[in-house]
């Protein structure tokens, strides 16, 4: 079985250990344990008495755990099972071992017991929950136990167990949980617990007291994880109310479809962009102004939820608001929507309606705390700009910090939702709203305009080119306050303004005040021009048609969405010498057209474009080319040799990551 010293040849299972003793006679080896097993004994010698005692208690613990697993795996009488569970809990609480598994192991045994015995009575459920309650004071319940607790909250929301046992458990989860993504059932349990509180006679008053207990009596909550955890629970619960509808519109199978077999693609409805509006029983007339809608608070009391579906219609937006409540609007009340939308209704079931009402009200409660209100902007996608009105009342400095920077060195919502930002999915509509709110409060200053000019001038010009009035105003202010020093950039801004009716009108008003701006355009337009990223062929056409560009020598369309279709506008630029098409969709057809007309072009950047030999061969007629970038194109070695032979002035060539490299 073993050997005098060293490692054992064969392992000994814990279930095979019949007894464990400390060797205590006078001449016994120091720091040894004696394990009695079938067929003999094994001596284990530790380095010191502390380690020996740890081994002793660990082996005793393992033996008892195996015993309880065996006893509880085949329950016969539940009064005996309950007694064994209580003994198991006492053993865990009195063990001298300091390890998380000491308390988690009994919880997992009980969790498995409950999952394998679903026919227990309600009283038996409650007795088991009360028995394991002491272990839950300092430990999160395992996933299966969370599911059991969820079921109890749904079926017995008025049970005293919910208040007396679950409350400290949920409080611990909210104070100490670091990531619901790793333990989603903790979030579901917290969600069901709060709904159970809402089912009590006092309803939201009980929920309100619970939120107060989580915040604490002072003006500042001492637990930094409480707010983000509460918001995560609220948003997940609100999302669950619309989950079936959202799954039906995004062409991905819902959980129900996965269970029943996913429907065919032809059965799905076309996708529509959607935003949720306030729950409200009635609509304000189309003539209602935004300011009127701002002063109405929402009462979530109807199962009809109004939702915005974006369309290309030019109809006035229909706003949703509630009547009969003139209190100051709340952050969550004022989730406003953008123009050019129509509304539709989603009928929610009674349970989803109660869930929605409960958790929207909780978000309102959270925004009532002064220390939580600014952070609430950071942990949700709800900003002052998204709300359509300045509905929060912290110091403006705090709102500015939340909107522009989540944390040092990281992009804020302002950067993320700008055109080209990772979160921008609405063509910059929300970004423009943010700028409008900031400019309309205390940020109509030269410093803010300077920041925009340095970091977001491209997105501002792109949105102004598309007729956004806020951005037109921003560009006019930049000219009026002399924010832009570069003459070419000033001329590009002027051309952008004159490309739309609203821009032309506001620019004319500006020129009435500053006549010298007109003189810039009379000189033949800018010599350099850079289009903002994400610009399209239509944006370029609109810009070039807005004024004179006879002096334009350098044009950069890098990282825009232009295609070969824009070539018909580029060939109308007689002075063009440098053209940057890096990372665009400009192809062979456009290249052939350019080679016929722009014979004076000197610098051409085609890096990461879809051009092939068919288009590149046409460049042989552009004898003035001295710099040509064909990096990461489908250039072949033969075509490269041909171009070198036919372009005598070519001095700088980049053919990396091509066949010719």
Automatic annotation (TrEMBL):
Domain C-Maf-inducing protein PH: 3-72
Pfam families given in the database record: PH_21 (PF23066)
Entries under SUPFAM superfamilies matching the protein: RNI-like
Gene3D superfamilies: Ribonuclease Inhibitor (3.80.10.10)
Entry superkingdom: Eukaryota
Segments passing through the bilayer: none
Keyword annotations: Cytoplasm, Leucine-rich repeat, Nucleus, Repeat
Main localization (coarse): cytoplasm
GO cellular component: cytosol; nucleoplasm
Coiled-coil regions listed in the entry: none
Compartments in which it is found: Cytoplasm; Nucleus
Quaternary structure and interacting proteins, as annotated: Interacts with FLNA.
UniProt name for this protein: C-Maf-inducing protein
Source organism (scientific name): Aotus nancymaae
């Amino acid at each position: 079985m073993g050997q005098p010293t060293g490692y054992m040849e064969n392992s000994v299972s814990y279930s095979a250990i019949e007894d464990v003793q400390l060797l205590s006679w006078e001449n016994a080896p120091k720091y040894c344990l004696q394990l009695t097993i079938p067929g003999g004994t094994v001596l284990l010698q530790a380095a010191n008495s502390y380690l020996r005692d740890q081994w002793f208690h660990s082996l005793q613990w393992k033996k008892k755990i195996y015993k309880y697993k065996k006893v509880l795996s085949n329950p016969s009488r539940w009064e005996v099972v309950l007694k064994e569970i209580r003994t198991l809990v006492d053993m865990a609480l009195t063990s001298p071992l300091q390890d998380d598994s000491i308390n988690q192991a009994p919880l997992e045994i009980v969790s498995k017991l409950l999952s394998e015995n679903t026919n227990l009575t309600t009283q038996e459920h409650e007795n088991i929950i009360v028995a394991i309650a002491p272990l839950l004071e300092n430990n999160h319940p395992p996933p299966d136990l969370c599911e059991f607790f969820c079921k109890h909250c749904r079926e017995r929301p008025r049970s005293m167990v919910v208040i007396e046992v679950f409350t400290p458990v949920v409080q611990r989860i909210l104070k100490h949980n670091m990531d619901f993504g790793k333990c989603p059932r903790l979030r579901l349990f917290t969600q069901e617990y709060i709904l159970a509180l809402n089912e009590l006679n006092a309803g939201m008053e009980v929920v309100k007291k619970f939120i107060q207990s989580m915040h604490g009596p002072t003006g500042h909550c001492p637990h930094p994880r409480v707010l983000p955890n509460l918001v995560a629970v609220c948003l997940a619960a609100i999302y669950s109310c619309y989950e079936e509808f959202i799954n039906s519109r995004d062409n991905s199978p819902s959980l129900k479809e996965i269970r029943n077999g996913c429907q065919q693609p032809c059965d799905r409805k076309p996708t529509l962009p959607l935003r949720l509006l306030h729950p409200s029983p009635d609509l304000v007339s189309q003539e209602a102004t935004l300011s009127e809608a701002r002063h109405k608070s929402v009462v979530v009391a109807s199962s009809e939820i109004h939702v915005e579906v974006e369309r290309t219609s030019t109809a006035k937006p229909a706003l949703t608001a509630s009547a009969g409540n003139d209190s100051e609007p709340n952050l969550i009340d004022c989730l406003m929507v953008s123009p050019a939308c129509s509304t539709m209704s989603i009928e929610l079931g009674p349970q989803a309606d109660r869930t929605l009402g409960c958790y929207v009200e909780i978000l309102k409660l959270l925004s009532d705390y002064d220390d939580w209100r600014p952070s609430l902007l950071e942990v949700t996608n709800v900003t002052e700009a998204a709300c359509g009105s300045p509905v929060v009342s912290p110091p403006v400095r705090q709102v500015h910090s939340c909107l522009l920077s989540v944390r040092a060195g990281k992009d804020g919502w302002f950067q993320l939702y700008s055109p080209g930002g990772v979160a921008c999915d609405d063509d910059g509509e929300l970004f423009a709203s943010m700028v409008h709110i900031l400019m309309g409060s205390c940020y109509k200053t030269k410093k803010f305009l300077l920041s925009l000019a340095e970091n977001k001038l491209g997105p501002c010009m792109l949105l102004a080119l598309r007729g956004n009035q806020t951005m037109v105003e921003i560009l006019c202010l930049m000219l009026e306050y002399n924010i832009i020093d570069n003459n070419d950039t000033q001329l590009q801004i002027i051309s952008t303004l004159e490309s739309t009716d609203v821009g032309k009108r506001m620019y004319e008003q500006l020129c009435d005040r500053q006549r010298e701006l007109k003189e810039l355009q009379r000189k033949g337009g800018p010599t350099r021009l850079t289009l903002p990223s994400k610009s399209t062929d239509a944006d370029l056409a609109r810009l070039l048609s807005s004024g004179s560009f006879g002096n334009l020598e350098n044009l950069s369309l890098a990282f825009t969405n232009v295609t070969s279709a824009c070539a018909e506008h580029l060939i109308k630029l007689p002075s063009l010498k440098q053209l940057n098409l890096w990372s665009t969709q400009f192809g062979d057809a456009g290249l052939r057209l350019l080679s016929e007309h722009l014979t004076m072009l000197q610098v051409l950047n085609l890096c990461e474009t879809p051009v092939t030999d068919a288009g590149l061969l046409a460049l042989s007629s552009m004898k003035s080319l001295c710099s040509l970038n064909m990096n990461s194109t489908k250039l072949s070695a033969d075509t490269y040799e041909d171009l070198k032979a036919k372009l005598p002035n070519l001095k700088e060539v980049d053919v990396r990551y091509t066949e010719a490299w």
